Amino acid sequence: MSLPVVPTKPPGKSWREINQERKALKRQRNEEKIIKREKRLALEKEIEVKVKEEAEIEKKNAEISTISIAIPGSILENAQSAELRTYLAGQIARAACIFCVDEVIVYDDIGDKLNTKKTKLEDAEGLKIARKSCVQLARILQYLECPQYLRKHFFPIHKDLEFAGLLNPLDAPHHLRMSNDFKFREGITMNKKVKPGRGSQVNVGLLQDVSSDKLLNPGIRVTVKMLPAVEGSKKLKGKIVSLATPRAETGVYWGYTVRIATNLSQIFTQSPYKDGYDLTIGTSDRGTPINDLPDKGVKYNHALIVFGGLQGIEAALESDEQLKVDDASLLFNYYINVLPNQGSRTIRTEEAVLVALSSLRSKLKAENEPMVFKDTGIATSSIFPQQKQDISDNSGIENNVDLSKFD
Ligand SMILES: C[S@@+](CC[C@H](N)C(=O)[O-])C[C@H]1O[C@@H](n2cnc3c(N)ncnc32)[C@H](O)[C@@H]1O
Fold first, then answer.
1. Residue 51 and which of 84, 111, 273, 346 are 20 to 30 A apart at CA?
2. b/e string for 326-361 if b means 16 or more Cβ within 10 A?
3. More confident residue, 5 or 129
4. What are residue 335's DSSP bridge partners?
5. Each residue of 323-350: pLDDT tens digit?
6. Per residue in 165-182, pLDDT tens?
7. Is residue 269, in this structure, part of any structural domain at all?
8. Mutate to test the pocket of ligand 1, among 341, 347, 350, 357 (most ligand atoms within 8 A of CB)
9. How far is the CA of 351 from the centre of ligand 1 (A)?
10. Structural domain range at position 157
11. Are the C-beta atoms of residues 226 and 185 closer than 8 Å to each other?
């Protein structure tokens, strides 16, 4: 039988002193517990506020007003050579970039009339057939929009791109060089092992990959918000954000997405915006003179401007079996002539895009205009002074058509 343990009294101290010390220790422990709990509650609150703020930013991003243009792929079919076809596609890309277009829809305005010029795509949704000229136009548009350092990952050698290397570059703000210091960068998720709980490594066109906050499949194009460097650490860290975030947060134009519509009606029905387009404009020399529109009087949140091909929008309407109207102007909120008293009998589609986007600027009023990007250019950092050379030449993007499975 074991005897009860009797606490031994340390020498030189009375039992009163010992009890007081114990009580003080207990009090101190309780106080520490309270401080710890308060700290934890404060941290939880901070996280809650941050999550709310981020949700607000995401909501704001989704609300930024956008401009989409629809171009018939068939315009390439009238060009005399492969080089001229490529150049024409480059002109559309340059116009879209110059006027900060958010979405380019390449549509088929001819339909089944000339069935031979089609190419097949088999994906999860089943068999899709698209006009070859539409696929080529979409491919060149995507190629030019993609930052040079990512092209080798997203654009394998393809006949459609044979002369794309000769094209005038877009020189878009998101085509960053190593020497550019900007808080957003486009990147590709890499196939690198990461520790459990960590996000994907992303190549953003710098010497070092960025550790991101999300674990994604390799080979995906992502937009990364670069996080401030931690003191004493050389590691680059970033947060994966939506494609709309750079523009919503800084006002900088961040490129366009590309989709293919296999007829005129799909331009309207397959809009990536939740409630579709709230302003639709058709362009034709038979439209209402643009001067009739009030200055800054046409409000929009998601505007769509549709251009026709050789025979105009009327021909596209005729080829679309789903559309039962016989007057093209009835498809749009506005049907406009952007250059009354034109000097040439015909204005080509690629010319009309520049004229229309330019003259509509003074007529349209965005409901949620992105803020003005105040920087005169993207700042050049002194961190990489010796690496000012262009990164090697070289898509995938939210809402972007996946062209990799087209012939
Ligand atoms: C060669 S034109 C087509 C022919 C036609 N006369 C017409 O405007 O419908 C090609 C496209 O350029 C645009 N376009 C040409 N002239 C235009 C004008 N004066 N105003 C607005 N758009 C025009 C239209 O989108 C048109 O479908």
1. 273
2. eebbebbebbbbbbeeeeeeebebbebbbbbbeebe
3. 129
4. 282
5. 999 999 999 999 999 999 999 999 999 9
6. 999 999 999 999 999 999
7. yes
8. 347
9. 9
10. 65-173+252-366
11. yes
